[in-house]
């Protein structure tokens, strides 16, 4: 059972393991959007955005609801927004540590 849960977690984080997918999730954290809106915000081609959305959809990270000729995408779980915020805090802490180390090195004789 434990191994199954670990595999599920690994697959979930693999779905996040692409810069564009992270950026898409950040955009969707601000509200539901269609592909054209996401594409415009990211300044990327629609095919690239659609491809990454398909990965996120297949891993149940985002959902899409058809409205007319568009599909409106949203985060499947609002806690993903919290996950991204915590990840940002962790990365900020690492940067603070790296900056402190660099300053220490610069101050050495």
Task: Report what the structure shows.
Helix content is 69%, strand content 13%. The protein has 109 residues and is α+β, with helices and mostly antiparallel strands. The protein contains five helices and three strands; from the N terminus they run H-H-E-H-H-E-E-H.
Please list the strands of the largest sheet in the order they lie side by side.
Answer: 1-3-2
Describe the largest sheet: 3 strands, antiparallel
The number of helical segments is 5
> How many E strands?
3
Q: Structural class per helix/strand content?
A: alpha+beta
Show unreliable segments.
none
Global geometry:
extended
Rg calc:
18 Å
Helix content: 55-70%
Throw out a few tags for this protein:
109 residues, 5 helices, 69% helix, single chain, alpha+beta, 3-stranded antiparallel sheet
What's this, in brief?
The chain has 109 residues and is α+β, with helices and mostly antiparallel strands. The protein has 5 helices and 3 strands, in the order H-H-E-H-H-E-E-H. The protein is 69% helix and 13% strand.
Topology:
Elements: H1 2-16, H2 19-29, E1 33-34, H3 35-42, H4 46-58, E2 62-67, E3 70-75, H5 79-106
Antiparallel strand pairs: 1-3, 2-3
